[in-house]
Automatic annotation (TrEMBL):
This is Uncharacterized protein. It comes from the Eukaryota. Gene3D superfamilies: NAD(P)-binding Rossmann-like Domain.
Amino acid sequence: MGRFDGKVAIVTGSTSGIGRATAILFAKEGAKVTITGLPNETANAEEVKDECLNVGANTTDILIVLGDIKDPEIQDKIIDDTISTFGKLDILVCFEIYMCSNISPFLVRST
């Protein structure tokens, strides 16, 4: 049993670097994970998804949502798609600097 079994996490900036490593760790520990990145990072996002599957996640445990996080519509899409797919949101990890300085849209929601 993983530390995050049954939890749902969004990891912004998860197509590279520490965001990528964090998304993979959440998946390894049993969380359902939403991978986010820029629209031109499809290949990177798919690689992260594959790595999540390699550490034990199921295909249905991983969601990819790409877009420019500075756009409030993309912020809403990330949340809405996550909740629509997994039924809730437990954890939000921001590795996108813009998102961290403008996080209030995420905090006003309840799942």
